[in-house]
Amino acid sequence: MDRPISLSLRSVDLANEAAFQLGSALVDPQAHECVIGDTATRLQPQTLKVLVALHDKSGHVVTREELIDRCWNGRIVGDDVINRCISLLRPIAARSGGFRIETIPRSGYRLIEMAGEPGRKSSRSLLLLGAACALLLAVIGMSAFVDRRTAAPQAAADPALVEVQPLSASAEDHAALALGEGMGSSIERDLEGSGTAARIIDAGYAGGGPSLQVRGTSIDDQGELRASLQLMWGRSGNVVWAANFHRPVGQFDQLQDQLSLQVARELHCAYADGRAPYFDRDFEFARLSLAHCDTLGVNFDEAVRLDNQIVQRAPGFARGWAEFAMDTALASESLPPLLRAAGDRHAIELARRSLALDPHQGLAYTAIIVSTYATAPWSDTERLARQAIAADPTSPEAHAWHSILFGMVGRVQDALNESRLAYQFDHFLPGKVDQLARINAVAGFFQDSEDALTQARRFWPTHPWIDSDEILLGLEGFAPDHSLALLARRGLAMSDARRAALMAVLKWRVASGQSQRDAAIKAVEAAAAADGVNPEQVWLLALLGDVDEAYQLADRLPLGARADARWFGPGADAFLSDPRFMSLAARVGIAQAWLQTGLWPDFCTVPGKLVSCRSAAAAAVSAAAKGRAFAIRPPQLS
């Protein structure tokens, strides 16, 4: 049953709404468009209604009930429907540079308009872009020579045509028939702003043969909806990619979303990043590319094997070499030290090959970051991230790693902004959702983190990264009972000792008793003894309020250990404000980074705090340079 509509609220009628400006974005409700620069983005009517309702009360909280009244005429809609509208608006907010949407826990949302036009680049910035590229090429010793025999073919002027056919199903199977309805429009929506050079057409299009066809079947199998999708390569009609999906009938909407996003992701892998000319002329290259797409974030060793075959078929494909470099670097992270060092050197060689072909490959720069960040000074790594973004401003990988680096030194707001950009430029992989959810949690925006994960569940219902983020939220105190059940139910890869420690902390979050706290502290200490000390264990003890034990454990961190962004989160305030924190910051190298770069952590930027932070950091770094022991004892009372 629909609930009564508040008579004091006016329903949003797009046909009668005037256009309005938000930063660099011109929102035209009547045309269902948002125009930023020369790019017009079509918005779904409900999403646009939500934006209008938020803009009408700019700066004020709009409750979920008010959104339902104004945008859905009081009809009962689930939180996931509203969450999806908000998640579609946030990338537009990031691109416009003129507004952001805040989640107000247990209440609603607030649109905040921001002054200025941060998206506009100065001529000096454009000059620095070329200088930064040249500097990095000199630093890593690359040749700018490109063998013309292996140069990339010219990209097609027109986007590839992709024909979306209705899913085949029995005429009596109504749920299965409905599953494919509107898939073409949904794929178009998911591709918006992704840089994918593909155009969706309906079956029977008379304007020319498609490069790819999307076909499939669906069936309601006793309450379980099953779908099979295939991509047919246009020249031969052979199957270039196929996958099967299933969900309970009650998750019909989620399955629809999953199917459209999966196809959009495959099209992005086919027709973005300069791949299109190779993809359309070489079936085996196309097959390998889509197989590689499906390994990302799942199996880096298999990704490396496919990368090698791809660059053998297309030696002039710069993006292919960059992907080879990144996958090699990521696969090397799990190797023993000597093998990892060899893997990192190989990854850097591959990245140089990519940049020799195209010095604007942001992914290649990022592969060098992944290969060196564990040993290089933070300031050098952060400088390389900025050079990567200057070379390729829309590189999601460069922005994602800039976010990770900012999180390490406590610049949480900068980390959040970079993570939002990474998600804006590539929302097809769970890694971008993973980073966004994590840094939202560190920033204390637990509902925003949960919103991102709820949306991600529609596309990746059992992905281990999404599971890990849910558990992180529980450790922070957000729905810990749900996280506890998830950790017990899912077979996440981790040591027995770590699993026991996380479960003990979650049980303490649920019950909050002294006995549960004591048991959790013992479990964390046991994990440190079994697995070796790591930054997560220090954070867990800080969450549990045992600051002295946290610092004693921190004193046993191995050389080369990096700071954990979660040290700067809301649950570790006592740990962060302790006088010993600066000594720890010097031990893990971030106090040196603050002094060298002037990029101070958020907690040092409050009025009157910067001077004390600078002097404390300088003293800690000086003591570390003189070889003084790390302070593990609490300050003596006078």
Task: Note down, in words, how this protein is organized.
This protein has 638 residues and is of the alpha+beta class. Among the domains are: 14-113, Arc Repressor Mutant, subunit A, CATH 1.10.10.10; 129-155 and 276-393, Tetratricopeptide repeat domain (Serine Threonine Protein Phosphatase 5, Tetratricopeptide repeat), CATH 1.25.40.10; 159-273, Rossmann fold, CATH 3.40.50; 579-638, no CATH class. Helices cover 55% and strands 11% of the residues. The chain has 28 helices and 12 strands. It has helices at 45-56, 64-72, 79-96, 123-139, 174-179, 183-191, 252-271, 276-281, 283-295, 300-313, 318-332, 337-357, 362-372, 378-391, 396-408, 412-425, 430-442, 446-459, 464-475, 480-489, 496-511, 514-531, 535-543, 547-554, 573-577, 581-587, 590-597, 610-625, and strands at residues 20-22, 25-28, 33-36, 39-42, 61-63, 99-104, 108-113, 160-164, 198-202, 212-221, 224-233, 239-248. The strands form 3 sheets. The protein has a 5-stranded mixed β-sheet with strand order 9-8-10-11-12. Strands 1-2-3-4 form a 4-stranded antiparallel β-sheet, covered by helices on one side. Helix 16 runs antiparallel to helix 17. It is globular. Residues 1-8, 117-157 and 629-638 have low confidence and may be disordered.
